[in-house]
Amino acid sequence: MSLLLVTLLTGCADVAPLTSRTYEVVDAWMRVAEDENFPVPEATLNLDLDAGTAAFFDTDGVEIATANLDLWPRADWPEGCPTNFSATAMETASLDIEVLDLGGFEIFSPILVAACPDGGRLVLRDNRDVGLDPCDGATRCVDFE
Q: How far apart are CA 108 and CA 102, in angstroms?
C-alpha cells in the first residue's frame, strides 16, 4: 500500500517518442501573422531515426531540404499533457539547418517535438521554450500527422 501511495504522489512520466515514418502537414500556426492569409505549407516529412535525418518534400515529391537530427538528452525533453500526478515527456530533436523554408513558411532554428500523449503527432517549430503543448512558445509551428 505504501509503495502505491509513493508512486501516486511522485507520478510517472509517459513518453511521446519520435517515430520513423512519413508525416503530412495538417495545420500551421504563427504567433503574429503578418498576413492573415499566411501560406500553410503543403509538405511531407520523412523522419528516419536510423539514418538520423528529416527530409521534407513538396506535394510533387520534390525534395525541399534534408537535415540531420540531433536528438536531445532525455533530461531536456519538454513535458506536456499534465495530469494531477504525471506528465508526458515529449522526445525532441534539433535540425542542423538555420532556416527551413516550406513554401514561404519559414522556421528558424527548427526542432521536432513528438506531441503528447503518444507521439502520433509531430510538431516542427523554432527552438524556443516549449510549453505544455508542443506549439506553446513558438513563433511558427507546423503540425504533422
A: 11
